[in-house]
Amino acid sequence: MTNGWIDIKNTDMMLIMGGNPAENHPCGFKWAIEAKRNRNAKMIVVDPRFTRTAATADLFLQIRAGADIAFLGGLVNYAIQNNRLAKEYLLNYTNASFLVKEGFQLPENGLYSGFDPATQTYDKSTWNYQEGGNMAGKAAPIDRPAATAAPAPAVLPPNVAYDLALEHPRCVFQLLKKQYARYTPETVERITGIPKDQFLKAADLFTSIRKDGDTKKVASVIYAVGWTQHTVGTQIIRTAAILQLMLGNVGRAGGGVNALRGHSNIQGATDMAGVFDLLPGYLKMPRPEDTDLAAYLKRVTPTVSKPGPWDSFSYWSNTPKFAVSLLKALYGPAATKQDDWAFHYLPKIDRQYSWTQLWDRMYRGEVKGLLSFGMNGVMIGPDTKKNIAALKKAEWLVVGELYPDETSEFWRAPGTTTEQMRQIQTTVYRLPCAGFAEKDGSFTNSARWLQWKNAALPPPGDARLDQDILAQIFLRVRDLYKKEGGKFPDPILNAAWSYTDPQHPSLSEVTKEINGKALADLKDEKTGQEIKTGQQLPGFAWLKDDGTTAAGNWIYCGAWTEAGPQLARRGTEDPSGLGIYPNWAWSWPANRRVLYNRASCDVEGKPWDPSRKQVWWNEAAGRWVGNDVPDFKADSPPKDHMGPFIMNPEGVGRIFAPLAAFAEGPFPEHYEPMESPVKNPLHPNQSNNPVVKKFTTAEDVYGTVEQGFTVICTTYRLTEHYHYWTKHNPMNVETVPEPFVEISADMAKDYGIEGGETIKVTSARGTYIAKAFVTRRIKAMLIDGKKMHQIGIPIHWGYRGIAEDAGKTANTPANLLTPTVIDPNAFTPEFKGFLVKVEKA
Amino acid sequence: MSQATLEIRAISGHAGSVPGAGVKRELEVCKLIDTTTCIGCKACEVACLEWNGLTFSETTFQNSYQTMPETAWNYWNLIKFNEHERDDGSLMLLMRKDQCMHCEEPGCLAACPADGAIVQYANGIVDFQQDRCIGCGYCITGCPFNIPKFSPQARKVFKCTLCADRVTQGLEPACIKSCPTGCLHFGTKAEMKELADHRATQLREHSGFAKAGVYDPSGVGGTHVIYVLHDASDPEVYGGLPADPHVPWTVQLWKKPLKWLGNLAIVAGVAGVFIHYLRYGPKTVPEDLQGGKP
Amino acid sequence: MSTPHLLPNGRVLRYSFHERLVHWMAGISYVYLLLTGLAFWSPWLFWIAAALGGAAVSSQLHPWAGLVFVLAVVRMYQLWGAQMKKTPADKAWLEAMPHYVRNEDESMPSVDRFNPGQKILFWGFWWCGLLLLLSGIILWFTDAIPWSLRFLRYFAVIVHPVAALLTIGLFIIHVYMGTAAERGAFGSVVRGDVSRAWAKRHHQSWYESIVGESSAKK
Fold it and tell me: Are residues B46 and A730, on separate chains, in Cβ contact within 8 Å?
């Protein structure tokens, strides 16, 4: 989240879309209710189903799964057409005034400039800003590149051309306007199935916060995996970000683009590089062309790119400090300047290793074994059949779990014959692990708070803590390398492992290591503050690229300082009343609760809304001060016009995302889901995402309407269950005992299905059988003029659980139906919006 | 809870005086359920199970999110889900937490023949004392809200206690504690009424629910569980919340006029035959009298 | 019914062993029902339940006792239903009731085996028994009655005590008549026989029919 859970209480307007917080984040949803109750905030819910979130909404719109960009693009268009914009914000805090390079083309035919159909990739060199100065009133075009010009290395120009009148035809604002002018209410209706009048009602309501030039009110956009789990997932979120930048809602209390994380520590997993292309703290993973640290740093450290008179902090310019401190934390004394800080120890990724791609390689026989901890692989991935087939091909599988799960028992999935079981050669090791209440450590929540927790009770029986298991594996592998050598033993032999008890690393020690410490005496020349060798670092501003600091994750620097575990703080003071609670736990970065909070003030440094003062410029002190920690260069006066979006080299928010920021293009464009019931009404010849990642094994089949797959299906989660393990817990089982398929009353009538009757849902990949839940909460819809049905399947059931173990049932996983196809940016599979057919069983 | 407390306002099936009959407690407790902010998460259902140690029962899918059709002897707290279409065609998913309403004039207590099986504390809580319950089930008939439920295993009736055990210790009921959205509140009746009225006003003025109101039915003397409803004029759509609940008239007739009439009749009957005997003596057969053998 | 007949000892058999057994089956179960019922009727009588083994036991056994009672009443109907039918002579007897009350039995018209008062008692118990059975079943299985049929419960809670009160009235008179008021009657339902004079005085037509029958047999 840019903001935080509690901060939602400060909002005036909520757009909840691609998420169902009432059901999947009920505790956090409290704050949405608070906003309604205490501020009369309005709530708009857009979802394929009328959910329990919709039950508390002021306005609900039923959207076709996968049509989100069309809806949001329609909102962008509406805001521009009706002048519902935060003008000062748009002009000063976004790149709306930046000029875009000649040769850049909008995707009117479905493709941006630079597409190579042969490789299905883009040459993104035109997706860039124009070099130059103030272009107000100057005629376009300028600097048209010669067709034969050799491709220059794609970097952002340091001196960006701009037009503060926002009138230049190649300025971002004009391009944005042109891009979304196509997203008329009529087009929105054709694509999303939301009737025009309802769309207009929602658009008017959402943008009403900027009615008549009001700058006080704030709107929040709240989403979850209902946005990410699409082949255009990242771009859906981008559209929301653009909308929020145009309305001036980012950085403000009650605003922001807020991702609701589905697990207690999924934010922590992302922060700590639970993603293959990242190192901790969102540093990029080295690639083979990064032959040394310098080359790597040159590639990943951005350079400032802004209009001449403006200033940009460009905080990522500190990347070398973060990277060297990370290497010092990883390899300790072995990371020396002479040895390039052991940069060559880091693996270089020559291909993508996202979850789906990894299992695809296992299916192809390239991955021989799998360590599976904290996940139920068979259940969570798309196309269960393929994933089970992949495990059958693996030589070994290690599963660390609380319960006997479907992954460790993949060999007995429903439909597997005894003969087939005999043929499976995979060796499965099942390790009993500790549950969350049996471990200490910290969770990082959606609000970016690191919160320390204590173990409630010891693990039962033979169960062990995850870190103990991992320590055993590491220490034994290291011993093997010591004894037998190997191709490249150094990274293993030199990995820092300086825990008091190496067999059982304590998580407090690990956390302190992540926070980082001084490796030499340090002194801040300005303040005179000193830090002695070996002391915990108070924050990432102290990190150095000369080897005198170590930090396992720069953004977590400050979580466990000399003053103690900041993340264990439990102060309940909230002097501002904004729900900042500065002394509760610790929020990255630097205990800031709202990111980019400089943008909560006008250009002069005064809060847009004096009743919701987060930070402000104190002229007397010559500093930014406030209720929150300013997310800004503390002594940069407003007159310097430093941009509030300090993590961008531009210093401002990106309405236009240049160069390689996103795979599909600088502005989001609506593309149909991989399996769609219609051709893209915007450009039928380019219906899907042109750079989507498909798979090519025999299992990877995609259904079409012509094959009879006419019903739109989406998967979802219920409030009564948590993924795949609450089917082991009596109370959860009691509250929702059986799987079902939610279908509309219209559809039930058309198909002659009664509520509670068993039905069969079939996709190109598999069949799912469950009882029908006939409801009026889903309605048939008109998509591009054709009547269509949409159904929903909760994902929680499988073949292990209370009922399953009692031999009463063995349910097939819902993901038998879902396609293996992923978003090219975040590599998330398209669980939401695929095609099925429905029959009576 | 012990009946030794003097703060008992009413006792079922009780001969003689009630220790706390005259006690006027300033702070009568009340649970407020704001159905307009309920999200049907069932945290209250599970908290109730856990706190009260209720046993697991097997359920089946019933074409609804609702856990079971109605509350059970081992399931005292149930959110009722109803899809309701408004006049303008828009849909509402109504979710109402159903449990004992803790009536000011409890029909269960009135109907109960067992001495002390149902008590009403001065704070308004109506509590079943299972050790005194005789399993007759009259309370089931007396209740206008379909709350008391008979356990065939225990041969006793159970229902929500408003967590009387927690409340005496100064804690809120378990359901309140677990509610994530704050749609449940607990406090004094006066406070809750004020809060409820405030919320209903807000709904009328800002959320387009012109008929929003508070449900505190006078037919049972008011309740110690009150609702804020989007449409107070039609409570039936919230899973059969009675619009005007009363203790069934037959129960009232039985427990009041009929009881006195009956008592009178029985006494009169016995007295009548006695007087008859005094006046007329036995019927005799003269021949048998002479023969000396009846 | 051919049971009643003249006994060798010169007395008249009024109730056969079978009839007496059925009567006491009804009688004892009724008394149990009455006592437990009264315990639940009034808090002031709740102690009766305690005396009978506790209220929980009483409430659990009450319906079973009810079934025994109903079975006995049904058997009585089979035994006596025909004889309990209203006859034209009943009207005269009922008109002469004040004499009966004043023990001027000699002024009463001749009646058959059962006088109209007994018939009223019988049919009173029969119909009230039916109501008690129906309402009792509802109350017995209160928890099984769905909420939509709750009116049945509302019906039952009022019908059961009203019917019970009516039987109590009948019971008081019956017991009084059978014990204190009518000498010889109690013996008839214990030992089974009555004197000829008793039979002749209280049930002349019946007596005459027996005498006629036996002489015919001879």
Answer: no
